[in-house]
Amino acid sequence: MGDSLLKLFSGSSNPDLAQEIAGYLNIELSKVELKRFKDGEISVKIKENVRGHDVFIIQSTCNPTNDHIIELLLMIDAALRASAGRITAVIPYFGYARQDRKVEPRVPISSKVMANIIQATGADRVLTMELHAEQIQGFFDIPVDNLYSKPVAIEYIKQLHIKDAVMVSPDSGGAERARSYAKNIYAGLAIIDKRRPEPNVAEVQYVIGDVKGKNCILVDDMVDTGGSISKAAGALRDQGANDVYCLFTHPVLSGDAIGKMESAGFKEIIFTNTIPYRAEREMKGMKILSIAPLFGEAIRRIHNGESVSSLFV
To answer: What is the pLDDT of residues 237-252, one digit of tens each?
Structure first.
């Protein structure tokens, strides 16, 4: 594919990130017309020749999730019918990823449905970041590159020069993520034991690990309502922690999440721009890290037929 022309398109979910990625690649975003009919249906028209070209479509499937998914699918179909040489769906935030298995009778595996419709529509490849469950890659029968924000996050954390640092996972499922961070910044490790009685409701039980007198960095893949991570911060302080930082990749931030995050008293709230931050005001101590260079480099390597494995750290 290295000898075909790279075409980079942006959906409406995260145009600023798409523009940053285009800047990294030193190219212009290709032209696409995205409109709505009066009844709310989405209209897509690619405004450039893509015949035989290597097409990358950037679209986070964030709120409004269903609209952004349909827009992505229509852009894929438009590129397919315009005879694109290869179509890569670049999905910085992959929606419906939390429903990755059947946990009770008569429920869907929604992330499998997502995989089915993306590849059935005509995508040849998917490039995403920090899937909520890594096994989602196996739901696809096309190549999936799952990037991690860790290189960008670690670079920033090291600049903070946090003494007596402890990386903390807010639940047992994220222990490997926290351990990986701890290894890279030579920090301690702790885990919050959590019981979740119902969806979006977290009940913190106790802290596994020594956090007394330490500066803790809570790390997760996403924050939705903010309840779980805020309660985790409270549990750390109850165990004698000093400063508590919050680090996550996807700022879903639904409902009153921003208020909860601010009331938790984090020293800093650090997250990436996989989802645009659209709140009316900034949270106190918030820091947005750009993952545009990671995606830009991955796109460059995929287009040129080079290895992207060194980016999966």
So the answer is: 999 999 999 999 999 9
